[in-house]
Amino acid sequence: MVGMRQNGSAPALFEVDNVHFSYDGRQPALDGVSLRITAGEKIAILGSNGSGKSTLLKLLDGLYFPTSGAVRYRGTPLSETVFNSDDFSFAFRRAVSLVFQDTDVQLFSPTVWEEVAFAPLQLDIPDDEVRARVAKALATLRIEHLAERTPHRLSGGEKRRVALASVLSLGPDVWLLDEPTTGLDPRSQSWLIDFILERSTVGETFITATHDLDIVSIIADRVYVFDETHKIVAEGTPAEILSNHALLLQCNLIHEHSHRHGELVHSHPHGHEGHAAHEHAA
Amino acid sequence: MLSISVPAFVSGVVSGQPMHIPDGYLGPWFAMAMWVVSLVILGLSISRFGRRLSQRMVPLVALFAAFSFVIMMFNVPLIGGTTGHAVGATIAAIVLGPEGATIAVAIALLVQALFFGDGGILAYGANVFLMAIVMPWAAWVVYRAIAGNASATSGRRLVAGAVAGWAGLSLAAGLAGVFFGMQPLLFHTADGTPLYAPFPLGVAVPAMLIPHMLVASVIEGLVTAGILAFVQRTNSGLLHAKDASTPQGAVNLRPLWIGLAALVVLSPIGLLAGGSAWGEWAADEIEGIVGYVPQGLASTQGWTAPLPDYGMSGLAPAFGYILSAGLGILLVVGIVWGIGKITARRTAQGKS
Amino acid sequence: MARSVVERTLAGVTESLEQSLFAEEIAREPGALQSLDPRVKLIGFLALLLAVSFVHNLWVLVSLYCLTLILAWISRVPLDRFVKRVWLALPFFTGMVAIPVLFNFVTPGNPLLVLSNSPYIAITEQGARAAAFLILRVGTSVSLAVLLVLVTPWATLLRALNVLKVPTLFLLVLGMTYRYIYLLLRTSSDMFLARQSRVVGRMKAADQRRVVTNTMGNLLGKSYDMSQEVYFAMLSRGYRGRPRTLDQFQMKPRDWAWAAGLVTLAVVAVILGGR
Questions:
Q1: Nearest Cα residue to B143 out of B154, B130, B132
Q2: Taking the model in full, what pTM does it have?
Q3: Counting one residue from A and one from C, how many pairs have CB atoms under 8 Å apart?
Q4: Residues linked to residue A226 through DSSP beta bridges, in sequence order
Q5: Which parts of chain B are beta strand (E)?
Q6: Residue A51 confidence (pLDDT)
Q7: H helical segments located in chain C
Q8: Closest Cα in chain A to C178
Q9: Fewer beta carbons under 10 A from the terminal one: N or C of chain B?
Q10: Rounded to whole angstroms, how far apart are CA atoms C51 and A272?
Q11: What is the pLDDT of residues A156-201, one digit of tens each?
Q12: How many CB pairs under 8 A join B and C?
């Protein structure tokens, strides 16, 4: 695992090059952002609410396009034009998938089964394989019993599982997760972490936007930090970032009287996989 | 005779939901003809709106349909203890444009009919025609005529929205009255027993039109203006979501206005042409449909309703009905026209 | 003291949320209609609905209503709630409308009961039958529509609409609408609750109206923003404006038998009903 990451010579999965972005020409949502991610990495994008994390994920997913600068996916700059090509669009959507922060946005189908079947159906996968993929995704997330349920009567944790299943059925190589722990109880949080760790052992890339410092050291090998001026101000290992009290304070990720986070900074970021497996068995 | 039946209708209209025609009020052939007319217009709306919005259409229409459905449940106070419900077709027409509103309201009506038993399934075509086609189109025409080129946050748009809502629903209600009034003419047994909605035109049209003009349409108007005022304050970007609300090309409103007025005047005549033979209702049913469908379709074809060249002799006994139906609907158009003129003059004076 | 508009709206919203819960419970009962292929139910009920509309004979209409009661009974639908839900909603409009129809001044004809000779007021035979036609037709039609929804989970019903050649695009919108109605209902009920807890005492109608229209405006903005986000969520999972769905139904011999039975009943009703 460790050997795979941050190999300078490995081709980049995503290259973000001095990207500026604003909604309707108003305040910038991203102000000169650059970063580089290689396949198989676990990345956390840390920042307070409204700092630009969600916008960055949408740019990485080819939903928005930069006002200036470039977002390159395996060397191809993402633009409206490249998505007009069915071939590229197909390949990209199969490989990269975004799990939205708001599960009510992500879950737009009348039932869980249809939700999970949506992506494979759109990507012209044959009927029988769609059925098999849906069954497998539901089984992996242990939500077979929810198949015929409607999303609006699920709990927060159940909705999050369905949201992940709806992407899992697609079999992406790259997961973009936007605030995945929002509204989760502790037990749901711990299976979510297990889920990320399990998938990343088979080489899938995870890019997680979050302001939840508790999970950063477990779900990331490398961290980018946004400040409130929509710029990336730091990059480093979780240990480096989480021990930088001044940085966290400046980026509004902790406040003066925050002791809890202070403690967590000292909890060891290594060996978490064993820790997770242990929890799993318990 | 009005003194008894009108209060009965009024209480029904005032206390109930916006008027959804249940199954049982319309004869099956009539209902099916309305299905055909509405499906054709719905299909045209989907292709025109879809061309403008491509893939974004699905979530936009779905959310607006859900919105329209939900606000139909809100109790809106008028004066004293009177409350009522809005249809929401007017605000949908203003934000999405008339084609988008047609699709959104048609979907909201389908959910109501299928899943909540509100409004008939066979009568769905007629309900779509009235509330998803006539109402948003009429409201949109009125809104555009009064609002003119006023800025997105101008007070004139509030007046335009209020009048548009009032006029759109009043027109739809008047036409619903015409639909009801046609049933006893078209469908009755040999001894004269009406089989479906039993009121003659002379009762049905004023009974639908007057209470709507006084209550439900007023509420639709107030709600439209209220939502517009709120959106102007907080979210004015919504009002120039151009890609969604502006149909392709510039729209010259004058021919539309004249066409609408002509259609309104001609519709009762066209409808009645089929009701000539009172005894032989089997033949007369088909005539009724034939006499009806062309004028419904005409609304999509440049608003030129042809005068049917048959059955004119049957007009004599029904002349009073036509007169009342036509006058009632003309009244609505007249009031709107008047308010439009006054606002236009006021704004012109304000500018000079 | 009369309840405020906000309270009444809240009650209405809550009721419709509960109603759908009730419907889902019944749809999961192991009754006769529940286990049928939804396409059979759709076609069968549509045939019955048409029959109700075409029949010109009161007794056949009464029989058709009894048929819906029997169908409800063998599907374990609580009859009292079923009858109440249909008939309590009806009198408001149809009942009121039907009263004047009885009399000679609306429906001229053979007198059944003369109430006064000058002026001449009488209940006519034609009037009584016209009122009966109206009420029975409306009641039976609504019963059929309500029953269909009670015995079929709505998502299944939605999928079954595919057989009627409803375009997939339309079905996609319809399903999404249904899903988001609940979200918007819940959102609006939260907004009203928040408002209610802040406002004490009575407000003037104009102020109440402002509260209601502001809530609507708020909801409109939310709906619009939501539609943008949902569009992204669809795009992200490969949507390109060409929706595709899977047909998951399989007709069993029992389904064919029911389909034939329901359609035959409808045809017989139309023949007996004087056509």
A1: B154
A2: 0.79
A3: 88
A4: A232
A5: 76-77, 83-84
A6: 87
A7: 5-27, 38-54, 58-74, 79-89, 96-101, 125-151, 154-160, 168-198, 205-236, 253-272
A8: A110
A9: C
A10: 68
A11: 889 999 999 999 999 899 999 999 988 788 888 888 899 999 888 9
A12: 282
